[in-house]
Amino acid sequence: MGDGFRSERGAAAASDAARLTVFGRALGTGNGWQEARAARERERMVEEQLVRRGITDSRVLDAVRKVPRHRFVEEALRDRAYGDHPLPIGEGQTISQPYMVAAMTQLLRLGGTEKVLEIGTGSGYQTAVLAEIARRVCSIERLPGLAAQARRVLEELGYTNAVVRTGDGTYGWPDEAPFDRILVTAGAPTVPGPLFQQLAEGGRLVVPIGEAQAQTLHLVEKVDGQMRTTTDCGCVFVKLVGRYGWEE
Ligand code: SAH
Questions:
Q1: pLDDT averaged over the chain?
Q2: Which of 146, 163, 175, 228 is the most exposed place for a label (fewest CB within 10 A)?
């Protein structure tokens, strides 16, 4: 399967729901054998969805192997948590498809010592993947309900190097700047100016840019203070809504 066009929205199709229903509630709570089953699902996801499609960064693969994705979706959707698709997380937002999370994280080229800014916490899943690899993750979510839920799960799972704030992330997080890496997990019309300003020299910023309905993943590097931009695959994210994003 190519890496072409991946839908983050509306693609939470029920195609593999039937296959996974047998595991159903099994992925739900925290007891041992259920978690073991989730770990096996995760291993399969890594092999079939990530390795097979060219994700090679071992830090990224290890992080995805480790983070219990099922804990970031509501109980009723847990049997689909390891499927090859985004899933709804409420308030019209989605948790990204596993491949997209891995591809964006790989584009950041994390070595382990970085301070990372994430815009669009959503479920907090991508935040956890980043926190597995980076030194510190600062994440901003516009919707207070989602931010509170993400904070709760990240805390339950023991991520002490990730902080979640509610607000318009297109302004960045000036008090914590500069950032070695910035990841925007919502689609923007252009690169939000404050984010590039808050990117450290030599830093990398990954952001979906394009129309409201479809975008292209952009990698922006800061070289001698200048923007150097390259494009990656097509993608479909929910809108980045804010001062330097889309109007509501
Ligand atoms: N990374 C998330 C995916 C989130 S979907 C995950 O793994 O679950 C994109 C999120 O961006 C939504 O939750 C949406 O509310 C949020 N968002 C949109 N515009 C924003 C803004 N200006 N600042 C912060 N968050 C924003």
A1: 90
A2: 175
**Which residues, at least 6 apart from 158, have a Cβ–Cβ distance to it below 8 Å?**
none
For the chain, domains (ranges, CATH) are 5-236 (3.40.50.150)
3-state secondary structure of 213: coil
Residue ID of nearest Cα to ligand 1 atom 6:
95
Distance, CA of 10 to CA of 215 (rounded, Å)? 15
CB atoms near residue 48 (< 10 Å): 14
Catalytic machinery residues:
96
Counts for the chain of helices (H) and strands (E), in that order: 7, 10
Closest by Cα among 241, 112, 110, 115 to 185: 241
What value does the mean pLDDT take over residues 192-212?
A: 98
Once rounded to an integer, what is the mean pLDDT over residues 189-209?
98
The token duo for 36 is 């073991």
Ligand 1 in contact with 96 (CB < 6 A)?
A: yes
Between β-strands 226-236 and 215-223, what pairing exists: parallel, antiparallel or unpaired?
A: antiparallel
- Looking at residue 248, what is its pLDDT? 87
pTM value?
0.89
Determine the distance separating the centroid of ligand 1 and the alpha carbon of 143, expressed in angstroms. Answer: 8
Q: Which amino acid is residue 3, in one-letter code?
A: D
Q: Is 186's C-beta closer than 6 angstroms to any atom of ligand 1? A: yes
Residue 221, pLDDT above cutoff 60: yes
Nearest in space to 137 (alpha carbons), one of 156, 124, 147: 124
Q: Which two tokens stand for residue 132?
A: 């597995």
Q: Is the CB of residue 89 less than 8 Å from the CB of residue 116?
A: no
What residue's CA is closest to ligand 1, atom 23?
A: 169
| Over residues 14-35, mean pLDDT | 50
